[in-house]
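User: Can you predict the 3D structure of Transporter? Sequence below.
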Amino acid sequence: MGVELTTIHWLYLLFVLVILVTMCLRRDTSVACLAGIFLLGLFAKGSLYQAVSGVYTSFIFAIGELLSTILVISVIYALSRALLHTGINSVMVSPFTRLMSSPAAAFWVIGLLMMTISWFFWPSPAVALLGAVLLPAALRVGLPAIGVAMAMNLFGHGIALSSDFVIQAAPKLTADAAGIPVQAVVTASIPLVCVMGAVTVAVAFWQLRRDFMNGTLATGEIVADKVQAVEPAALLSPGKQRWLAVLVPVLFLLDVVVMYSVKLQGGDATALIGGTAVIVLAALSGFAYGHGALEQITTYLTDGFQFGFKIFGPVIPIAAFFYLGDSAFVQIFGKVLPAGSQGIVNDLGVALAQVVPLNAAAGAVTLSLVGAITGLDGSGFSGISLAGSVAKLFSHAIGGGTATLTALGQIAAIWVGGGTIIPWALIPAAAICGVDPFALARRNLVPVATGMAATTIVAMFLI
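Assistant: Sure. Here are the predicted structure tokens for Transporter:
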């Protein structure tokens, strides 16, 4: 027998549904989350001032949980700007342009390189790092600009961001909401990411090749004849650019070796990557700017923090609400839940299992739909806490499979909202390639839907 559900449980569930509806309407969820936190505090404490204080305290709790993730993304973005301005990134990727001997080769080289860089630098900075160098080379061998945009988008904002194996920002959000270790989500996501990536990219490549061979690519999908690349200032000599272009990726690869050799996971692994990024940023600034390095490092870090909080600004309110579904509720509002309660979400999951007969298939389909709905705002990250919370609820009803359901919801949310089929989330890749974001979204729709269906079926057997 589970704990008897109270008004707090039903109120939490009501606001989960309100947030889902708000996302379906493509509206921001911050107000709904704030109202949910306030009313939960009011019913829990019976005090107006404590409910008001609880809103602020929940934000502090969420920021504390997310701060390491925000910090590492900020410093990595700062480093990416330094690599771009010094021209080191151009030297880093130039050897790969020689592998682009045909349209098909260009598609796969761009995609695989984008995926690799995105694991370490995140997709948005990676688009800027790679686009100006690889796009002209791809056009020269006959790959249309829409093909370049698809490769960068599906491999970067799709495969790399939905897995997030290195920085682990996405798994941390979903794992925290599901109440399981980050590494459990990462491990469970590996087969799902492989299926999603392989099916989606294969369908996308087949469709692109078919239409290219038939000459049926829409004119609105083709870039203008001249692509204007931004040339970096002469901050470093060609010799320094070359050896730094080798040293920087070697340092990050050494991080990966250390992570696996001493079994660094979660926050420890993130700290190693972040520390390396800060040290490399400082060294690059010293080489490039000399006496002006002290001021330039501050400028880069400021830009990085602005980027980090811009990305996670919409995430903090919704994370603050969904953290209340677990241990945060007791920390913020005290022990007001019934004796024997395992947290609001756990209690709801047990109650659901007693009322509705669920199975792995129903759980997998539900998490795919929930993840897709949370991605409709075009963020990909603002709703994955909800996916983790729902995964925890359903896993209690099913009797297991928390990590797989959480990973599935994460993948669905990020593939939809992280920048593959929501037009306003496609702007970075579309802009750098000079294509219409709506045309790119239409191109990605069928491949992503096919991949999501295949991944959901596989997840049913893994739960």
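Residues 48-86 form the longest helix (39 residues). Residues 7-462 form one domain.
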